[in-house]
């Protein structure tokens, strides 16, 4: 985040998405089981909205599944055919078994028994083969769908600007990309075994049961209605709580990430207990909601089994009376019980799918929020792929305002720089320095005015062209997990080892890399936490140098270096970037006083422009900054300026002392 962002953070709208990752009032203590609750679970949250909410939200999940399964339609059709073959074989077995009993066993016809027995064996083999094929194909299809959905979410996140990432929050985006996609994927895997087989098995069992005995088959119709009512009542109560579970999961991830990344600060201020309590309270809320949902879902299987067993007892009782009255054959009752068992199996399969459906529905909605959010920074319809004015940088009346903010972060910025020119931007915290660089990089789009690179508005430039033209070294350098070489080659994937060592030489990083046991192949952890802040910064500078862009943006990236390293790096850097346009952000006067031009930002506007000597005479804001940093209380800045100018500087080595103090 830019310095301006830090200074104006309160002006940024949070929005409903950002609220998922902010701090919030919670109840409970470190262990949810040990704490008395002031009210029912979720009382502090929005009340459940009932079955109407279920009907309203169902199309989101169905649309997600339909869209993501469309590329796998052949596999889905083949899966349906295999399940159809399996169900037909399964449904035929009870009827054949009834015929064996009535016409073979009771009549002692061994030939008939052997004949039908071989047929039943063939059907059983066919059923097993079709079932194994369906299970294998469903697993492969579900995994492929999850892979594609995860990739789609990841690609959309990569397209987001800093604004969208800030609105969702990093922990929430991580949860949506991994956990939410997994929930939809697991539902698809469960549904593949049910969507065709369960309806066909239920309807086929009822149809074949009607052939055996019509009055008794009516019990099956009543059974299906009773089970459907049970499902509707229970699932209608659980669905709203899944929203809360996923939101709490976002918050737990956010607190955990914050605790891990800030572990040194937490320990330095002895805040371990406080952070554990914060995490424990959030974890307690997640535990409460999860237990509440678990208790509701735990009632489904017992209730369904109770209903099924009651109906099975009723079938046996009524069937025995009908057999005793001569209205039903014994084989028909045996087949009837087999069909009831098949219906029971179908209901159990549907139960597991229904258990996964509410959470998958919430996850699908959260995924769709990401996929349907359009980036605020979009590619131009006809991008310009070649910048005619190489190295030319220009801002004309440029400004930026966060959506809904009362005041702009930047306003009316006029600035230009050309090849071989170094322009420094100086200002207090919150003055908009880093935001200005973000406009050049098109991390944000200017809300007023124009930003041009190479003579072309950045909104019309091809993104790859802009990235090749502009090299950026952030204030807080970030390294990726891998090796020193792999991190450096982010700047130029085709760079040779010699080019890497040359860039390390310029960035004053060669010495410490050579001391590493594996040199260029030395491992780097995520974020570069196994090297110091200054070493990370030097590696980031070397990475940018390998790109050899036309425009360099340095965002106060020398602040982590000691004075000796700073001076040596600048001296080595000057001839390396002599023909490029350089825009450097700084807070220290000593680092910018030899720039050809200094732009002073104050409150998001250009307060003054000139050389160090000119600004000391004409700009009160610059004079105040210089006084506070150069420890000159008598207002005589010439002496410290002359002392600072007595030694040769990188800029003087390239441009001479013209315009310098």
TrEMBL record:
Q: What is its main location?
A: membrane
Residue ranges of every copy of the ABC transporter domain listed in the record: 393-628
Q: Positions of the region Disordered?
A: 1-23, 632-661
Protein known as: Putative ABC transporter
Among its keywords, does the record have Ribonucleoprotein?
A: no
Subcellular location, record wording: Cell membrane
Entry keywords, A to Z? ATP-binding, Cell membrane, Membrane, Nucleotide-binding, Transmembrane, Transmembrane helix, Transport
Entry's Gene Ontology cellular component terms: plasma membrane
Q: Which Gene3D superfamilies match?
A: ABC transporter type 1, transmembrane domain (1.20.1560.10), P-loop containing nucleotide triphosphate hydrolases (3.40.50.300)
Membrane topology (UniProt): Multi-pass membrane protein
MF terms (GO), sorted A to Z: ABC-type oligopeptide transporter activity; ATP binding; ATP hydrolysis activity
Which regions span the lipid bilayer? 75-101, 113-137, 186-210, 216-236, 296-320, 332-356
Stretches assigned to the ABC transmembrane type-1 domain: 77-359
Q: Read off the InterPro entries from this record.
A: AAA+_ATPase, ABC1_TM_dom, ABC1_TM_sf, ABC_transporter-like_ATP-bd, ABC_transporter-like_CS, P-loop_NTPase, Type_1_exporter
Q: Entry's Pfam families?
A: ABC_membrane, ABC_tran
Give the gene name.
tetrTII
């Amino acid at each position: 985040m830019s310095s301006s962002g830090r200074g104006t953070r309160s002006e940024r709208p949070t929005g409903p998405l950002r609220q998922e990752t902010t701090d919030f009032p919670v109840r409970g203590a470190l262990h949810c089981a040990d704490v008395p609750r002031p009210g029912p679970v979720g009382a502090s949250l929005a009340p459940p909205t009932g079955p109407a909410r279920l009907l309203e939200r169902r199309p989101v999940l169905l649309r997600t599944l339909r869209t993501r399964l469309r590329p796998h339609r052949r596999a889905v059709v083949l899966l349906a055919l295999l399940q159809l073959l399996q169900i037909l074989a399964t449904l035929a077995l009870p009827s054949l078994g009834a015929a064996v009993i009535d016409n073979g066993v009771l009549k002692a016809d061994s030939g008939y028994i052997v004949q039908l027995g071989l047929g039943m064996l063939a059907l059983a083999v066919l059923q097993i083969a079709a079932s194994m094929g369906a299970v294998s194909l469903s697993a492969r299809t579900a995994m492929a769908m999850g892979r594609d959905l995860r990739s789609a979410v990841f690609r959309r996140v990569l397209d987001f600007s800093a604004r969208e990432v800030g609105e969702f929050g990093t922990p929430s985006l991580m949860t949506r990309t991994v956990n939410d996609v997994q929930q939809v994927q697991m539902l698809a895997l469960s549904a593949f075994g049910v969507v065709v087989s369960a309806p066909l098995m239920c309807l086929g069992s009822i149809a074949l049961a009607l052939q055996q005995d019509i009055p008794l088959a009516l019990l099956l119709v009543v059974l299906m209605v009773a089970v459907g009512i049970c499902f509707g009542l229970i699932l209608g109560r659980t669905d709203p709580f899944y929203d809360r579970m996923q939101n709490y999961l976002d918050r737990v991830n956010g607190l955990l990430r914050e605790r891990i990344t800030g572990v040194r600060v937490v320990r330095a201020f002895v805040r371990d207990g406080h952070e554990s309590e914060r995490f424990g309270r959030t974890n307690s809320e997640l535990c409460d909601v999860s237990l509440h949902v678990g208790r509701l879902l735990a009632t489904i299987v017992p209730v369904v089994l109770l209903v099924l067993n009651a109906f099975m007892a009723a079938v046996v009782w009524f069937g025995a009376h009908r057999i005793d009255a001569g209205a039903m054959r014994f084989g028909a009752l045996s087949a009837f019980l087999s069909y009831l068992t098949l219906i029971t199996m179908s209901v159990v399969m549907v139960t597991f799918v229904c258990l996964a459906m509410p959470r998958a529905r919430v996850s699908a909605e959260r995924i769709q929020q990401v996929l349907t959010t359009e980036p605020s920074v979009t590619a131009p319809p006809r991008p310009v792929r070649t910048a005619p004015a190489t190295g030319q940088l220009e801002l004309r009346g440029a400004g930026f305002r966060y959506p809904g903010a009362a005041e702009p972060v930047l306003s009316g910025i006029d600035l230009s720089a050309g090849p071989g020119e170094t322009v420094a931007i100086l200002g207090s915290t919150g003055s908009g320095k880093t935001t200005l660089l973000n406009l050049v990089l098109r991390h944000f789009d200017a809300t007023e005015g124009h930003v041009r690179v190479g003579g072309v508005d950045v909104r019309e430039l091809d993104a790859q062209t802009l990235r090749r033209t502009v090299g950026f070294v952030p204030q807080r350098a970030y390294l990726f997990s891998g090796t020193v070489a792999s991190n450096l080659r982010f700047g130029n994937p085709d760079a040779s080892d010699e080019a890497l060592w040359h860039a390390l030489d310029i960035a004053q990083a060669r010495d410490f890399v050579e001391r590493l046991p594996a040199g260029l192949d030395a491992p780097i952890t995520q974020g570069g936490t196994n090297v110091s802040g200054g070493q990370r910064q030097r590696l980031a500078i070397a990475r940018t140098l390998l790109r050899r862009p036309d425009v360099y943006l340095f965002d106060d990236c020398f602040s982590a270096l000691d004075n000796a390293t700073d001076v040596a790096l600048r001296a080595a850097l000057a001839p390396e970037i002599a023909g490029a346009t350089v825009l450097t952000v700084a807070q220290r006067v000593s680092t910018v006083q030899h720039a050809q031009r200094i732009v002073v930002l104050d409150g998001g506007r250009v307060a003054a422009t000139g050389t160090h000597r000119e600004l000391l005479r004409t700009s009160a804001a610059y004079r105040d900054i210089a006084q506070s940093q150069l420890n000159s209380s008598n207002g005589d800045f010439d002496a410290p300026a002359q002392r600072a100018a007595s030694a040769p500087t990188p800029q003087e080595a390239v441009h001479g002392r013209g315009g310098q103090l």
